[in-house]
Amino acid sequence: MKVRLQWLGKKAEGKTTATFGVPWDRGILKDEKSLQLVDSNGYSVEQQTRVLAYWEDGSRKWSCHTISIESPAEYYELQMEEQEKNPKREGKIKEVSEKKLAIHTDGEIFIDTGVLKARISREQILQDVYIKDRMLCKGAKLIGIREMRSSGAEGTVVRRQSCESSITELTLEQNNSVYAVVKVTGRHGEWIPFTLRLYFYKDSAKVRGVYTVFYDGNPDKDIIAGIGIKYVQCIEGELYNRHVRLSGDTGYLTESPVMLATARTKGKYEKMLSEQLDGKNIVFTEEDRDFAELLEDLAVWDRYRLYQDSATHYGIRKRTNSGSSWVKCKDGYKSGGFVYLGDRYGGIASGIRNFWQKYPSAIDLNHIAGKEAEVTLWFWSPYG
């Protein structure tokens, strides 16, 4: 028996990770280890399988499969080993790695996907993350804002208190050659318990997080003003070679802390500005000294904010420092909830799934003109 698997919509492109489920009739699948995944080109695909549900007779009702692939095929077939050998597959079976992605030690979990290396500890969710021996980010932690209200003769007093997360338990739930799942359990201060599951995939720099909060406060007094995750991103190089992308309805706002837009941006400098907007590296020569000196007098945009405050409105704002006013960049209807921050060596793309549906939500980029930028993804925004 074999089950044909198709992509939902357009076929994925490039390196892809996917997790999917397959239902089985009663008595069909006795052992999930008998399953093999074969792509449309006849190659055997490395996968990891686990059972989600059983029938009363012990046969499998639902199986869950995870793959990490370099080049997606048009379709796949899930086959049982007992069936006749497919001649198309002869000589095309790829070697399966037995190396697991994670190592669990006392109080820490080390991840190595082959592309990304990460350390998870009880002090910080992501202690540090490396790609090609370069530290990309560090110090990731969950944060919360607690709002307390009290009424008196003179009116209502509102106070907000920051609650950083404390981790009570680290669990390595899944660990194999294709993917690893780390469960982080803790509380926001002494207030709200939470769980965060982090997913890592073979040969991938992607990290997926699933966050769950358990509210056990007094709804009349303990109000959630904000919940999110914050991390520090290491960034370097000239300010005009740092790049920011913030998603809107159909495209992205593209900027840099220092833009090449001046009164003298003409001729070849117009081309440089276009290349800057495309994220390309800008190199000035000695003959460009006068133009480069002009950039020293321009505003340095150090902070950006993307927020969705209703089902039909998002805004993008920027400012030079914490004491300055926000400048309007863009307003629209439904943002994709995606940002990118990087330099000439690369960067990090971050996003919140179902961003506009889960309003109020927001993403903050702070201190991007320094060496350590702060990125905050607000699952429940304090700006709503």
Largest sheet: 15 strands, antiparallel
Structural class, please?
Answer: mainly beta
Strand % is over 45%
For the secondary structure, the number of strands is: 26
3D structure, described in words:
The chain has 384 residues and is mainly beta. The protein is built from 2 helices and 26 strands. It has helices at 268-277, 289-295, and strands at 2-6, 16-23, 35-39, 44-45, 48-54, 60-69, 75-80, 102-105, 108-112, 116-121, 126-131, 134-152, 155-175, 179-188, 192-201, 207-213, 223-234, 243-247, 252-255, 303-310, 313-319, 327-332, 338-343, 346-351, 361-366, 372-380. The strands form 4 sheets. It has a 15-stranded antiparallel beta sheet that branches. The chain has a 4-stranded antiparallel beta sheet with strand order 1-7-3-4, with no helix packed on it. Strands 19-18-23-24 form a 4-stranded antiparallel beta sheet, with no helix packed on it. The longest helix has 10 residues, at 268-277. The radius of gyration is 25 Å and the shape is globular. Mean pLDDT is 83; it is low at 83-95.
